Amino acid sequence: MKALRSIGLMKLVRFLWYGFYAWLIRISLPPVRVLLLRLSGAHVGSDTVTFDVRFANLYHYGFKRLKIGNRCFLGDEVMIDVRGGVTLGDDVTVSNRATIVTHINVGYEDHPLQKFYPTKESPVVIKRGAYIGTGAMILPGVTVGRESVVGAGAVVTKDVPDRVVVAGVPARIIKKL
Predict the structure, then answer these.
(1) What single-letter DSSP state applies at residue 60?
(2) Omega into 123 within 30° of 0, i.e. cis?
(3) Is the dihedral of CA 126, 130, 135, 136 positive or negative?
(4) What's the pTM value of the predicted model, to 2 decimals?
(5) Using CA atoms, how far apart are residues 89 and 109, in angstroms rounded to an integer?
C-alpha cells in the first residue's frame, strides 16, 4: 500500500500500461519492435536492429526520451533505463546484457539514505560508432565518445573521450585508437 500512496494511481496505471507495452515489444520480431518503439514516441533511425532489449522506468515519461540513430545494433538482454534519457548516435553497438542507467533512487521518500542520495536523473549519450561490450554498465550522466570501445564487464562512471578503449571497474582508458 505504501508503494501505491507513494506513486499515485495514475503512475500505477502508466506502470501497468508500459509494462504490457514493453512485453509486447519483447515478444515481437525485430522489425516490429522498431515500429512499436517509433509508434510509442521513441526516435529510431533506419537500419537499426533491436533484439531482446528491456526497458525500465517507462512509467515516468514513456519512450519520448529514447533516441537511437541509424544502423545501431542492440543485443539480447540489453537493459535501458529511459527515465533520464538515452541517446545513441549512428552506428552504435550495445552488446548482450549491457546496462544503461539514467537515474538513482534509493527508495521511498523516508528512506534513511535519501538525504545523502536524493533521486536524480541524468541522460546518457553514446556517440557515433561507439561499441559497448557484453555486460558493461553505463551510469547516469555519462557520455561515451565517438568510436570508443567500452570493454566487457566495465562500469563506466565518468565520460569517455573519443577513440579510446576503456575497461575495468571503474572503467579507465587502456588504449587510444
Answers:
(1) H
(2) no
(3) negative
(4) 0.92
(5) 35
